[in-house]
Design goal:
The chain has 166 residues and is an alpha/beta fold. The chain has a single domain, classed as Rossmann fold (3-Layer(aba) Sandwich), CATH 3.40.50. The protein contains 6 helices and 11 strands. A 7-stranded mixed β-sheet has the order 5-2-1-6-7-11-10, sandwiched between helices. The longest helix is centred in the N-terminal third of the chain and has 13 residues.
């Protein structure tokens, strides 16, 4: 069974965590909520999520994909070197790395965007470009196994692309 890490932190965007979580399960892919070690997190609206694995124990070899949801969570996620190292290792091993909305901030901190086609929420477009991304304003952009989308409205295309690449 394929496994996908979904990174979680406080202030996550509810749909960008739970839509992929449930959609992957429907397709026989095991989603795993990977947090920064606090155990419990709340969305921007206070919706709870329980960490299933702490990033300190997550190993790239145990996963086929990593999904980075948006909201304000990526700003907290990127402050943890273990998160950035995990995403970079997943990328370097040729595994699916997918980010939506502000999730691009983690891609930036992982240092994997230079020369890659990508998109994000409009507010971080300049950050993405300054990190070397070839920015494309589309609902989903795939460059190899790097998959990016802009916002919750793009979730269907985002998940279809992730499942296709898996």
């Amino acid at each position: 069974m394929k496994k996908a890490a979904i990174l979680i932190e406080d202030m996550y965007q509810v749909l960008e965590v739970w839509y992929p979580y449930l959609r992957l399960r429907e397709d026989g892919i095991k989603p795993v909520l990977v947090g920064t070690g606090k155990g419990a997190y709340k969305s921007k609206e206070g919706y709870p999520a329980e960490e299933e694995v702490a990033i300190q124990k997550a190993k790239a070899d145990d996963f086929d994909a990593v999904i980075i949801p948006g909201g304000f969570a990526p700003d907290f996620l990127r402050r943890h070197s273990e998160v950035n190292n995990f995403v970079r290792e997943m990328y370097n091993k040729g595994k699916v790395v997918a980010a939506i909305c502000h999730g691009g901030w983690v891609l930036i901190s992982a240092g994997i965007l230079k020369g890659k086609k990508a998109t994000s929420f409009s507010a971080i477009k300049d950050d993405m470009i300054n990190a070397g991304a070839i920015f494309q304003d589309q609902e989903v952009v795939a460059d190899g196994k790097l998959i990016t989308s802009r916002n919750p409205s793009d979730l269907t295309a985002f998940c279809v692309e992730i499942i296709k690449r898996l």
